Queue: 2 jobs
Job 1
Amino acid sequence: MECKDKDRNYYAKQIAQQACAIVRQNGYEPISPVLAWMDIYSELERERVMKNCEELLRVCSYYYRYTCKWSDKSEGMAQEAAWAKEYGLSELRFSLFE
């Protein structure tokens, strides 16, 4: 699936919803920064969004990194994973292939 800039938000939401569904199916309660803040902040406020993500991770016990075509290229996801590791959060894995 190729993604044009105007479609990016649509695809990001679809991916976030899929990830949240997987988390719920495995007995956890998901919180998605994409779903929480995408329509609240603009791309110009990325620094504020990342600060929000860090604050959220500080009160979590675990995190889930949904692997998709774009996840390895996402600077935001990489930063969130680094924070999660720094704060000692357990990474949820639901597949033998993750």
Job 2
Amino acid sequence: MVSAPKHIVSWVGTQILPHEADVRRWLLRARLGRDDVEDILQESYCRMAELASVDHISSPRAYFFTVARNIALMRLRRARIVSMESVDEIDRLEISSDLPSPEQVTMARSDLARLKRVIAALPARCRQIFEMRRIEGLPQKEIARIMGLSEHIIENDAAKALRLIMKAVASEDSRFQPQKEFKRGTDAGRI
């Protein structure tokens, strides 16, 4: 290995070394392990030893922090890269996906279509207020101004719309609940 020019070694010793403790503390505050911090500091010194000139560096302290930061970021990026063997192992674990299944997508679409039908069946003013409040996200005061109604009426109609929607959805859900099974002997003779 070729040693660094004497003027670079001298510059590192006088301009960089006094800031090592500050850079170390800064890296430790970034929740890096002690070994990682020491490696980053050593790699920073190696990079600076490779410099041909230091004339372009106006703030050695800032330069030291920047070099250390860049090395830390590069290490983090490398740590995120996963080997192909690791990917194969993950696939073998059969971990469930966060993506919805086709059945879940179909059910969600069905629920959305049902909700749209229920909203469309609301009385006109209730529907308009509900859509402005819940879908468009307008504040009550703004809806009252747009419709030329009092805030009290807007509040009441929004609550009424919500009650009607909940009632319609609940009644549809109850239609699809499984019926009680007949028990032999007790209900057999009754119709």
